[in-house]
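DEPOSITED CHAIN:
***
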Amino acid sequence: MINCYNCAMIQTGPNTVCQEITTEVIGQIGVDHRIKWAQLRLIDGLIIASGTINNADIIISNDTHFRKAVAKDYILAFDV
């Protein structure tokens, strides 16, 4: 599943979800033990919580904050 936080930039298709920020998403922040939530900016936490609530298999990002906060087995990032 791909989780996009800016739906206008991505065509929806199979395995693509544009998650609204709901109280359920907010409630997901701090729950998943693979994430060091305190190291994330608020918007980054919401993006990752949107993925976890939709059972995303992996987070794909090269964002430095994501790379530091997300467990190595839960993120796909390319060294640049």
